[in-house]
Amino acid sequence: MPVRDGAVLAGGAGAQGGRGRARRLLSPLLIQRRSPMARRILHPTDFSGASRAAFRKAIEMAKSSRAELLLVHVLSPIVPVAGEGYVSPKMYDEIAASTRAWAQKQLDNLLAQAKKARVRAKGFLLEGVAHEQIVRFAKSKRVDLVVMGTHGRTGLAKLFVGSVAARVVAAAPCPVLTVRGK
User: Fold this and answer.
1) Which of 49, 76, 114, 127 shows the greatest Cβ crowding within 10 Å of its Cβ?
2) Distance between CA 37 and CA 62 in Å, rounded?
3) Residue-wise pLDDT tens for the chain (182 aa)?
4) CB 73, CB 103: distance < 8 Å
5) What class does CATH assign to 36-180?
6) What does 37-77 look like in DSSP terms, one character per residue?
7) How many CB atoms lie within 10 A of CB 80?
8) Domain ranges within the chain, ordered by starting residue
9) Which are the contacts of 135, defined by CB distance < 8 A and separation ≥ 6?
10) What is the rounded CA–CA span in Å between residue 132 and residue 130?
11) Residue 38's closest CA among 13, 56, 63?
12) CA atoms within 13 A on the CB side of 106
């Protein structure tokens, strides 16, 4: 049974059946374990449409609560595709540097938008497995709220691609607001 926009999802984060209903939400979902007063908000981004929608929500929330906004992008390790042939260390380094430069440019753009909205913000590029780095960062920076996008994949797409948002929700030390991309 789909959950309608504006409906209240009752029960704690571990409520039986709550995860299935949460996946079918058509509106932003906040799973909360503590007080909503946020002084430090984390917005992990992959620069997708879903992340842009979540960024707008994060800006809105940071502005209204005068919170600091921490923007994070996680660079995944580059894995050469089998059958593509040998990738020299020099070529690998060039690809990594190019990817890092592109991500930094995107992050700088988001920081400029935050500044324009008069929100205090800092950007961070991390390396590793996305959900692990996001949760580790949230813990180390004592984040009060995570606001992140979700692509809303289901079925086989979710099985093969996985869900960074679902893994962050399961392991985060604070409330997580997921915003579904349009």
Assistant:
1) 114
2) 10
3) 444 444 344 334 444 444 555 555 556 666 655 555 789 999 999 999 889 999 999 999 999 999 999 999 999 987 766 556 677 888 888 989 999 999 999 999 999 999 999 999 999 999 999 999 999 999 999 999 999 998 766 655 554 445 898 899 999 999 999 998 76
4) yes
5) alpha beta
6) --SEEEEE--SSHHHHHHHHHHHHHHHHHT-EEEEEEEEPP
7) 12
8) 36-180
9) 167, 168, 171, 172, 173
10) 6
11) 63
12) 20
In angstroms, what CA-CA distances link 87 with 65, 78, 140, 145, 154?
48, 11, 35, 40, 34
* C-alpha–C-alpha distance, residues 50 and 167, integer Å: 16
Residue 68 is encoded by which pair of tokens?
């600091």
SS3 31: strand
Q: What is the CA radius of gyration of the chain?
A: 17
DSSP conformation class of 4: P
